[in-house]
Amino acid sequence: MEAGNKKIMNRLRRAEGQLRGIQKMMEEEQDCLDVITQLSAVRSGIDRVMGIIMAENLKNCFVDPEKDPEEQAKKVEQAINMIIKK
Question: Residue 38 is part of a domain; what is its CATH number?
Fold first, then answer.
């Protein structure tokens, strides 16, 4: 596994642990504001992972362009639409 993928997997594992912690908080009926704060942290972490993956894919489009310029343009357009969709 390359270093970039390892970082992404670590971030995903961290988010997974946070989600388990949130489930426990809810089972223990902890304060709603604390739960929301933790949910927000998970969302931010996932957004960062998505950004990292998107950036890598876009970088690959420009560093190692497809032979077909139309295919490359299509991939860039898809990436832009995913970013804007948020």
Answer: 1.20.58.1000
Strands of 1-86 (E only): list them: none
Segment holding 29, helix H or strand E:
none
Domain that holds residue 19: 3-85
Number of domains within the chain: 1
Cα separation, 47 vs 8, in Å, equals 11
For the chain, the residue count is 86
**Rounded to whole angstroms, how far apart are CA atoms 45 and 59?**
21
Residue closest to 83 by CA, chosen among 24, 33, 75: 75
pLDDT tens for 9-65 read 999 999 999 999 999 999 999 999 999 999 999 999 999 998 888 888 777 777 766
